[in-house]
Each structure stands twice: as C-alpha cells, then as structure tokens.
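Feature request disguised as a bug report, sorry. It would help if multi-protein outputs had a clear separator. Right now it looks like this:
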Amino acid sequence: MSDDIKFDATMMGRLGQALSFICGADHPATAALKKAAETGADKDVKAARAQFLKVKPNERRAALAMLDD
C-alpha cells in the first residue's frame, strides 16, 4: 500500500501530522517525518520513509487514510 506513495517533503509533513495524532508526537517515525518535512533533504526523506514502514501496519493504514480526507 505505501509503496505507491510519493514520499516528498509535503507528503512527509501531512503524514507526520496524521501519525502524531495516531502514535504521538514523541514517536520516532513522527519525529523523522517532521524532520524530513522541514529539511526536504533526500537522506531525511529516506530515513523518514524507513521509520514510517516500521510503524504497525494498522497504524500506517490509519495515517494514510487520514490523508484521503
């Protein structure tokens, strides 16, 4: 499901907000997404994508579903 998503700085910001609501602001994936959104650096985007993929599948789906609204 998340393989077809374009992980750019804008998407990272939106995912970070959704994940913050679901997992909390102190979750490692939330922090990585926030950093990637702020810097837009390729290495930060790759790190955030990796952290996002470590999130429990149901939490990942919930965060992605929030983006559809």
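(second protein starts here, but nothing in the output says so)
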Amino acid sequence: MRSLFYLVCSAFVIGLAYWAYKENYKTQVSLREVKELQQQIAQEKETIAVLNAEWAYLNRPDRLRDLVDLNFADLKLIPLLPSHFGDSEMVSYPTPDPYDINAPVSVNSDGGENGGQQP
C-alpha cells in the first residue's frame, strides 16, 4: 500500500513539474511577443511623428501661398474675404410642423364632428 502511495505522489510531482515547465515556456513566449509588440508600437509612433512633421512642412503658409501663385491661372483661386460669407438670415429654415403633437385627442366611439378630436 505504501509503494502505491509513493508511486501516486511521484506521478503527481512529475505531473506538476511538467505543468510548471509548460507554463514557464508559455510565459517566455508571451513575454517575447510583448517585447516585439512594444518595438512595433515604438516604430509606428516614430513613423507617425515623421508623418506629422512632413505634414507640417508641406502645409507651411508661405509654401501654400507660392503654390497658389504658381497655379493661379489653372485654379483661379482668390483670397477669402468676409464678404464671401453670407448672414444667418439668408439661410432658409424649414417651416414648423402645422400639427400640434401635444394637443389632447378624444378617444370616444361617436366620431363627432371633429373626427374624435377636441378643439
């Protein structure tokens, strides 16, 4: 009986050792993946910073002004002035709904002259 107990305990310890080894291996793989992802994130952040710098460089006002002057004949661009904009009174808004949805409605069965609606 004692040898069976020792055999079961040793199998249990071997099983735990195998489980611990596999978990350690999985942890190392996960840590390696995290490190690679962090490196990719750093590269993408650097790429975004470079693209933002290029965007700022290309959108310099003096460069854009030169491009407008260079392509004036083709684009026929003119400077924006306050007179190019309209007033808010010039906007046509839709007319309000003629039906009052908050008006009480009668629900009787006689129909009446109003079709069941109260004045």
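Even a blank line would do. Unrelated, but nice: The first helix runs from residue 2 to 58.
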